[in-house]
Design brief:
This protein is α+β, with helices and mostly antiparallel strands. Helix content is about 35%, strand content about 25%. It has helices spanning about 5-15, 30-40, 75-85, 140-145, 165-175, 180-200, 250-255, 275-285, 305-315, 335-345, 360-370, 380-390, and strands spanning about 20-25, 45, 60, 60-65, 70, 90, 100, 105-110, 110-125, 130-135, 150-155, 200-210, 215-220, 225, 260, 265-270, 295, 320-330, 355-360, 375-380. Helix 10 (about 335-345) links the parallel strand 18 and strand 19 (about 355-360). Belongs to the succinate/malate CoA ligase beta subunit family. Pathway: Carbohydrate metabolism; tricarboxylic acid cycle; succinate from succinyl-CoA (ligase route): step 1/1. Its EC number is 6.2.1.5.
Length: about 400
Amino acid sequence: MKIHEYQGKELFRQAGVPVLEGIVASSAGEAVAAYEKLGGKIAVVKSQIHAGGRGKGTVKDNPDQRGVVVCKSADEVKAAAEGLLGKTLVTIQTGEEGKTVNKVFVEAGCDIARELYLGVVLDRAAAKPVLMVSTEGGVEIETVAEETPELIFKEHFDPAIGLEAFQVRKICKKMGISGAAAKAAFKFLPAMCRFFVDYDCEMAEVNPLVITGDDQMIALDAKISFDGNALFRHKNLLEYRDLTEEEPSEVRANDAGLSYVKLDGNIGCLVNGAGLAMSTMDIIKYHGGEPANFLDVGGSASAEQVAEAFEIILSDPNCKGILVNIFGGIARCTTIAGALIEASKKIGFDVPLVVRLEGTEVEEGRKMLEESDVAVINAVDITDAAKKIVEAAG
């Protein structure tokens, strides 16, 4: 689950990670009131979307309007807010379709002496979280990793202990941080690592992390995502979820207990088991097709869930065919066949449907389909299924 910058900074403040004062606004009037309340001469108006690269991003149809604007007056704040709110912002991470800006964050300015990068993620190979820092703040970390990987420094840490003092000293030496700024780092860096662990984050990124003219260390950004499987431990975080930032079909699938990710292809996939779903997508591509989604109905899906899965797949206007690939274990082939027949009665199938069934109660399931009125293209194995759906979908 992702959250907005202003929400992340609210959590940072609670966790002892220094941030600047800021106020979220949903209209130009609210943005001006926020600027006046902050009481400074300089403020920054920041678009709030679930994507990075906002500073270099531009509003669709208005390339002069950036996603982050430095303002020195109430009039400039008003113009920036009007230029962003309700508009589509395109960044390196949104793709050409962009994202609609529904809120802006008006934040107080500060005296920036240095811009750094900081991120905490889980290193699965090491089975530990890792703190990554770089002197290249304000630059996409992917670009730094590709062009100057030697400028990224990493420190793995034990989640039960956190970042230790000797590790902070190592980082400060590598980054050229000394004096009062190093003293600030001894508070900031361990606090960020504790935050990552305590909130079960998938990622906690600050870009840029700034050192001010008076040697304070401040999070000038907050890009945070949480492990959805751990949200039961953080019920308070659910109020931060912004459904307008999520794909509607994915929200619908999640509510139905289905694992679904929308893709850009034209062949819908309904599969039980994540590994089989990945293999199905791979073999579709191998035979020249493009999957329209990842959809794992799981091992214990009910007929109602499977019917809902079909409705979600067919709601995609790009879908020109569906491949059902089931290896019946816990989920019996008869359950899938029954759900398929019910879905056909309820919504109908106006695209080709290729079905490959194998496993528990497979003969019974095939017989159910044969005796039904559903137009099914049967497949004997996964390769046969992939070839047939690619051909049928054109």
